[in-house]
Amino acid sequence: MYRCRLTGLTHICDKNCNQRILYDNHSSLCRVSKQIFPLTMIEQQAVKGVRRKLDAESCPTETCAFKRRRDAQRHPSPFERSFTAVGPICSQISDGMDMS
Questions:
Q1: What phi and psi, each to the nearest 5 degrees, are found at residue 83?
Q2: Would 75 be classed as within a structural domain?
Q3: H or E element: which one contains 44?
Q4: Long-range contacts of 29-37, Cβ-Cβ distance < 8 Å, separation of 24 or more
Q5: What single DSSP character describes residue 95?
Q6: Is residue 47 packed enough to be buried (19+ CB in 10 Å), middle (13-18) or exposed (0-12)?
Q7: Domain assignment present for 28
Q8: Mind listing the pLDDT tens digit of every residue in the chain (100 residues)?
Q9: Residue 21 forms beta bridges with which residues?
């Protein structure tokens, strides 16, 4: 059992520990006690899902035809085009303003 010096709260580090963070693909680490726990089956499946998602996002564009290429010509929306049609309204502080 661990007691926080700042808050005085106690922490029991067991299989129900809610202070664990992912340490590697097979284990998690308790932030309070620094104990390492093996991942549960649900946690292992979650790690595999994240890995699959990262792999899918980093695949080459030839194999990911469903994704839009980043360097392809992008067509701006009418809202975005309205900003390019009008120049910025910039002026010096002294133009038209009395600073005295």
A1: -75, -30
A2: no
A3: helix 41-57
A4: 32/2, 32/4, 33/2
A5: T
A6: middle
A7: yes
A8: 777 666 777 777 777 788 888 888 888 888 888 888 888 888 888 888 877 777 777 765 555 555 555 545 667 677 676 666 555 555 555 555 555 5
A9: 29
Amino acid at 58: S
Residue 11 bridge partners (DSSP): 2
Angle at 63 between CA 59 and CA 66, to 5 degrees: 95
* Domains: count for the chain: 1
Tokens 């809610």 label which residue? 18
For residue 29, give both structure tokens. 């680490």
* Domain presence at residue 42: yes
- Looking at this protein, which amino acid is placed at residue 98? D
Q: Give dist(CA 35, CA 20) in Å, integer.
A: 9
Rg (C-alpha) for the chain, rounded Å, is: 27
Neighbours of 39 (CB within 10 A): 18
